[in-house]
Structures
1.
Amino acid sequence: MLTEQQKETIKATAPVLREHGTAITTRFYQMLFEKHPELLNIFNQANQKQGKQQRALANSIIASAEHIDHLEEIMPVVEQIAHKHRSLGIKPEHYPIVGENLLIAIKDVLGDAATDDIMQAWEDAYQVIADIFIDVEAKLYDETEQQPGGWKDFKPFYIADKVVESDVITSFYLKPVDGQSLPTYNAGQYISVKLDIPSETYTNIRQYSLSDKPHADYFRISVKREDEHDPNGVVSNYLHNDTNIGDHVEVSAPAGEFTLNTYSTKPLVLMGGGVGVTPMMSMLHQVVNEQPNRPVSFVHAVRNGDVQAFKDEVTNLVLNHQHVNVHTILSNPTADDRANQHYHHEGFISFDWMTQHLPYEDADFYFCGPKPFMETVMNHLHQLGVSDNRINFEFFGPQETLQTTA
């Protein structure tokens, strides 16, 4: 337990951490991987190169410092991170390694400002926070393993089919090698896929949203092929270009907190930007099956029809559901798009468009996509007076902060 004095010490350091947080976490990861290169088999190196993981960890540390006397207030974030940790295979034995290097990084960056009292307070605080994560993750591991069809860590699957959805997105149908039935999952959840790529020194793990409703015999993920020079493209390009039907991959059980609330009967708005449509597809499947009378607005914003995935699937899915309205928004439609009117709006999602076409006064909103897309949507929702308890979103990758102006 932390003393009241230690809590006050931790809270007092929050402004300093906010100023130097990214420098601390950058130093932390540098030392961590130098001392424990085996952890490079777990961490996403693309996120490291882009600084996303450093910023996400810095934000977590700052939030912990600011709420150290009321840690229950950050439990939603803890739950979200714990789901990611469970799907990656983070274990209790990793936490002392992290703590040791994090404390050294704090001391290195803050220098003389990191007094003995401050460092002792942070050492004790880290243990309290680590224990919370370990406890939450232990429960998730147990629940995952004990559910019907569940398993712990990773399990061998094979690629049963590859289906091209657009010029840049391909769906992969993954079936368990042992032929056992798969666990059910909540729309919006994801799985981790672990690959040993011949050209890469370390194992690569990536998390992909499940893009279909639950099936007993397969998972479906739909992967965007990134530019070959993009650090995010190592795994996606390998999946697209170098895997074949029958190839094996390692897969975690489904995880994630970004899930559809089917207890709500409010109108539902599902908004996907580009490949961010993948969790929206799973949610669309769920709502038309479980709440066929619930009004739904399904919005997909994408560059043009060539890169738009799931056009036919969405059309067929809503064919007999009069309560579902589909809105396709193309920012740069092709000549074929214009000739055949394969879309409903040209340009980007605007405040006026949302005002005219979406039931913003009482709807629940779920959205996912590139950060600029999500910031645009969030700003418009705030301008429209939509309360935060009706707004749900998820980043692909480490949690970031949406910069809003409203």
2.
Amino acid sequence: MRSIRTSAPRRRGRRSTPAATGLVAALALTATACGGSTDDKADPKKPGFGASQAADGGAGKAQIPAGIADNLEEHGIDVDKWKAGGWQDWDKGKWLSEAGNYVNPVIEGLWKPERMRSAEEADKTLSTKDATVAQGVGDPEPGPVEAQAEQTPYHANAAPVGKVFFDSPEGTSVCSGTVVKDVNHPGRSNLVRTAGHCVHAGGDGGWYRNIVFVPAYNDLGRSEAELSNANASEIAPYGNWWADRASTSTGWIEGGVQTGGAGAPYDYAVLHVKPEQGDKSLEETVGTALAVDFSAPSAAGAGRTGAWGYPAAAPYNGLRTFKCLDAPGRFSLASDLPSMHRIGCTMTGGSSGGGWFRVVDGETVLMSNTSIGPIDNTWLAGPQLGRDAEALYQNMSRTYGDR
């Protein structure tokens, strides 16, 4: 979760039916008792929607699709050397930043349980002076909503939810993500939604490296002590899924900063993933996926909303799934930026990228993702997913969904 400081609070193949029912029940219980806008600069005709693949091929060699090898060579990248440790070179002159330059070859065995547990949230703060800029249309700040631990096992209650791990210049980092449906490949989705700042550093950097999605991470919600000798299947019951392609908005790539900044309203991303081992799709493996709602109302008309994620900053430790349930309001960082959704929630860094869900006609759908929140962790804000967010999603689906 990206954090901003204000004078007051500030930002920051198993059973599919039970998992979906669990999310619906949580939202329905609260109702009776928890993106891009049209101003986004992203254009589906521009490379901002494309992501390059660097996937493993035969004999351990990286197979680079036509047109990409030359691009990598231009940036001085040898994929075999990259996989052998060259990815740790964060020379700014060679840090791939443009949308079409993404490369993430599978490095089998890199993300072991202990490395996952060492990952930290990339929580940042913004000075009070910078945070008190003129704001656009917004609703009163919500009261804090205490995050609730999700029931275990996660595969039966929140199967689409997982953790996104990646390497940044600061070290191993972690966010949250959600398995979403692929409308052009029903039942066989390999798509994951998360935040743009979980895959790309924004205007001052480029694509992060070794991006992996782990659905239902720590499925039984075990403690740190209980996981000290855990095997890979206990940590990652569905395995590790490498993002062979990633897309985020041009608005984030050009305007995103460590604290969100002007890129915050466009802070969303779509990953196309592949298993480290195996050949079944992510949706078939997990047993479920959520539809994406690109038409959610901008204020309380969205109804009760739930945010799910793996908060990692104190008082949480990133090992368990939590959720916050509230009615969303509007929030904007500046008068010339689109408003975002905002709910009360005490989740901290690490919950970034986690899905926001609502129920439409009895179906749980994803309507946003966690982007920013205040330093005292009393609320969360996420982008509205509108026309441009849908175009980005459709481009990823149509271009790479059958691979």
3.
Amino acid sequence: MKRALICGVSGQDGAYLAQLLLSKGYQVWGTSRDAQVSSFANLERLGIRQDVHVLSMAQSDFRSVLDTLTRSEPDEIYFLSGQTSVGLSFDQPAESIESITVGTLNLLEAVRFLNKKIRVYHASSSESFGDIKQGVGATELTPFRPRSPYGVAKASAHWLVANYREAYGLFCCNGILFNHESPLRPTRFVTRKIVSAACRIALGSPERLILGRLDISRDWGWAPEFVDAMWRMLTQDEPDDYIIATGSTHSLEEFVANVFRCLGLDHRDHVDSNAEFYRPTEILYSAANPEKANQILQWKASVSFEQMIENLVDAEKLTMSQGR
């Protein structure tokens, strides 16, 4: 039985990845900052909480990271933890950069110190690219030009992984995931904010949905199928970096319009754009070319933009009906 350690198991990707690995017969271990008080609500929601062994780990503390690896003895590590909000990184740049870069460094050093053949997946990010020229999707060779503290931190961590792979021979991969959504997204994420507000409005709430820029464009995918690509990276003969995305870009206004349309509403009657919600610097256009993953990993996104939004709306309606 293979043993996998998921750092950040309580998040959206961590929970879906745990579910996937359990279905493949893995023994799954997961970390959070304090496993004694964490609710692990996402694992509970997926019905797998009792199947995951949880440990406390402070990723900024090398000894804590080393102790976690020693106790869990993983064959594979999926490093998904650290600050995850682009917006929050503007308010807390030092914490964002430290939690992501130092945490990644500590993990890589711990794996090198143990001198075991542990395979490592690192959650890189499309935010590292910054703005992409319209009509040209980013590839694994596209230069990084991040436009947020979060993007800067992820770009730094990405190159740490690449350096440890080349300098020390570690089997470590960067998964450069573009935006991916699910019902497990926290409410601080704009996509969940939009879906939640639209569902309340459809039930009669008089509120208006206030957003920042509506002209930004992203490649949005369905998170439950993205985690399969993470696992596939660690099954390859050689470690490498891969872009994981749908290859299709849509504006935030398209996202909003589709959400309200699913509820029989016109978004223009309920949504306002306010400059107060603009970020200091913003990626206006993001696009991806996932051909490498399609060819080598045999992975391709199957859930369309429209179906993803229907899934999010249906899940939110169910959550509201159950009073969660």
4.
Amino acid sequence: MKTLLKNAREQKGIKTRELAQLLGIDQALVSKFENGSRKPTREQISKLATALDINFEELMIAWLKEKILYEIGTDDLALKAMLLAEEEIKYNISYVRKSLSKNLQVLLNEIDELKSKLDNFRQFDSYRIKQALELEYTFESNRIEGNTLTLRETDLVINEGLTISGKSMREHLEAINHKEAIDYIKQLMDKNTSLIEREVLAIHNLILRGIHPEDAGRYRKVQVMIKGSTHMPPQPFLVAKEMEDYFIWYEENKSKMHPIVLAAEMHERLVTIHPFIDGNGRTSRLIMNLILLQHGYVIANIKGDYDSRMKYYQALETAQTSNNKEDFLVFIAQIEKESLERYLSIIQPA
């Protein structure tokens, strides 16, 4: 792979410094990729393929081959282990492909093309753009749950520290808390922290801080019903076990699924368990977006207007009551596609 990278860079007439800028990494790291002393990450492989016009599949195969050889070396039992692994990989691939509809697969392909384009323009990204989009996310996510602050009022509360006349203290706290929760998931993303119970409880604690302090970051102890839904969440004594299974499922599937599907599944599964008295929707959407950000995608911002909210709730209801997640997965994929398109329209040079 190291020869492939170097030859492609030289053929394009790109210097290591220029390639490093395109990838958003140190120049020394590019040199290490080319001399074989350091292996790129999966995300960096995607960026390298785009920047150097290398066939992604060809580069990915070369990367995986080297990764496998590094792990198994020349052990006498390596070939036998490879044969067993081959059968399991074939089974997993077959299972994943069968579980995705043609419509969803087309959407995922379009999303990954958009992400690849976005990766080429990361250098035009800025703190101000992210700040504005995160403000919109806070506004929309709270609006879904009934918060009546406008986008401008949300900005004044978060960034100017102002109090809006006629709006409740809860609505002010929801805006402030959600902004802090976004900052927290960005910290988790930067640290590449795995999703564990402690982090989910910490996110929920931020969401309900000062609103329901006795319930913030704690699983519910009473039975709840979801307004407007026929889905009945599990009894409170089952919540801890359901959440344990939730994290086990994540660990077993996080490397098998497309990140969009994984993020949507983790959202749906959490909100279906409904482990908290309040704040389940906002926490579930934050978990979903943490996973998306960790994989290099952008925040999927579900709008809070009536039509968008109804489509969202209906897709969730179908997933929860008919064991058919297709509508919800497609809904989330479409939201992510639209979010990527908008992000690109903002940062892409004219």
